[in-house]
Amino acid sequence: MKNKIQFYLITLIYAIALFIMGYCFDRSDFLVHLGLYAVCFGICLIIYRFADQWKVSLKLGLTIAFLLRIILLVSEPVLSDDFYRFVFDGQLIRNGINPYLYLPQDSISFLSIEGNPYWSTLLQGMNSEGYYSVYPPFHQLFFYIAALGGEDLLANIVILRLLILVFEGLVFYLLYSLLGLLGIQLSNLWLYAFNPLIILELTGNLHFEGIVLSGLLASIYFYHQKLAKSTGISWAWAVGVKLSPMMMLPIWLMAWKRKHLYRFLVYSSVFIFFSLIPLGFENGYLNFWKSFRLYQSSFEFNASIYYILRWVSGFWLDYNPIQTLGPILNLLAFSLILWLVFLRKIQKTTELVETMVGVFLVYLLFQTTVHPWYLIPAFGLSLLTKDKVFLAWSGAVFLSYAAYRNELVEEDAFLLLIQYGIVFGMIIWSFLKRFTVNKIQ
C-alpha cells in the first residue's frame, strides 16, 4: 500500500501540472509551460522505472492514464490553434460546401452568416485562412462528426477529444499486445501512457497523429499474424488520415513474399483510392495539391538539417532558400529511405518495426517543418524497439514552443541547438551502442 501511495502522489502532481497547463496559462507563458512539462516528463520516467516495484497493475495504470487525459476534456487547446481549421472544415462539410474548392473567406459568402460570432471566431482563430484545406478526406470525416455538435465550439472540441480518446484506447491495446508478442518489456507501455507530449498534443491540442499511430500499430500486429488483407487495410487507414505513412510502401514491398504482397497491395490500394475519391469532385485535388506544395515551400519551423544548410547556403542563396533547399532535402530523404529499406532484409516483425522507425527518423530530420506532434507515430513505434532516440526527442521537442513567446513567431537558436544536440547525441550513442554489441557478438 505504501508503494501505491507513492504512485498516487506523483500522478496527483502530474494531474495538477496538466490542469495548470490546460486552463491557466497561454502559450506565450513558455517558461511556465516548460517547467510543468519537465515535471510531467520526469514523472513519466519515474513511473516507467518504478511501476513494477510499486506493483502498478495494467488496469490501474491505464485507468490513471485515461483520467489524466480527461482532465483536459473541456479545455480549449492552448499550445496549438489548428483546431479552428478542423472545426471550420467540418462545418463547411455539414453545410454542403467542399473545403477543397474554396478559401475560408470565400466559403463564408455561401453561408450568409455575416457577423455570426461563432464563424467569426473560427475564421479569426485559424492560422491557414489563405490556404485551401490540406487535410485528406478521411481526416475530414472526423471534422464532420465534430461539427454535428452544432455551432458550439466547446461541443465541437469535446466531440473531437472523445474520438481521439477512443483511438488512444486502441493504441494502448495494440501496444500492450505487440510488446507481449515481440517479447519486449511491458513497462514501455507507460512511456506512452504517461508521456506529456502524447497527452498534450493528442487529447490537449486535438492532433490526429494518434489515429495514424493506431493504423500503423494495427498493420504491424496483423503483419505479425501474416494477415496481408488486414495489414493492407490498417496501413491504408493511417495513409487516409495523414499521407506521410505512404513513405512506408518500400518497406512493405520488401517485407512481404509475392503471394501476400499482391493481396496487401490490392486491399490497401482499394481503401486508399476510395478514401481519396472526394478530392476528385470538381478537381478539388488541384487546390489540395497547390496548398500542400505551398505549405512545403513556405513554412519553416523547428528544423535541423534544413537550418544548417540554409545557413551555409546563405552565402549564395540570398532569397527564399526553402524553394531551392526544400525539394533537394526531399529528394535526399527519399534516396536515404530507399537505401535504408533495401539495405536490410526484413524477415522478422522486429526488423520491420526498426526499419519503420529509421524511415521516420530520416524523414523528420530532413523536413523543413517539425511540429512536436509530428514525432508521435515514430515515438509510438520506437517503443517496440530498444531505441530511445524518440523518447529523448519527445522530452526535448517542447523547447520548440519557445517560438510562441511573442506575437511574432521567433525561434530561439540556442534552444534549437539544445534540442538537436540531445537528438543527435542520442543517435550517435545508439549507433555506437549497436556497433559495440554487434562487434562483441
Quaternary structure state of the chains depicted: single chain
Q: Please indicate the percent range of residues in DSSP E strands (runs of 2 or more).
A: under 5%
Mean pLDDT: 92
Overall outline = globular
Largest sheet: none
User: Could you list the spans in which at least 5 consecutive residues all have pLDDT below 50?
Assistant: none
Output the helix-strand order. Answer: HHHHHHHHHHHHHHHHHHHHH
Radius of gyration: 22 Å
Structural class, from secondary structure content?
Answer: mainly alpha
Share in helix: 55-70%
Transmembrane segments: 7-24, 30-48, 60-79, 141-163, 170-194, 235-255, 261-281, 325-343, 355-376, 413-432
Organism: Belliella marina
Pfam family, one: MptA_B_family
Protein name: Carotene biosynthesis protein
In words, what does this structure look like?
- By secondary structure, this protein is mainly α.
- Among the domains are: 83-155, no CATH class; 295-440, no CATH class.
- Helices cover 67% and strands 0% of the residues.
- The radius of gyration is 22 Å and the shape is globular.
- The termini are far apart.
- The model has no long low-confidence stretch (mean pLDDT 92).
SSE inventory with pairings:
Elements: H1 2-23, H2 30-50, H3 58-70, H4 83-94, H5 104-108, H6 117-125, H7 137-147, H8 153-181, H9 188-193, H10 196-204, H11 209-224, H12 228-241, H13 249-255, H14 258-276, H15 284-296, H16 305-313, H17 322-343, H18 349-365, H19 376-382, H20 389-396, H21 413-440
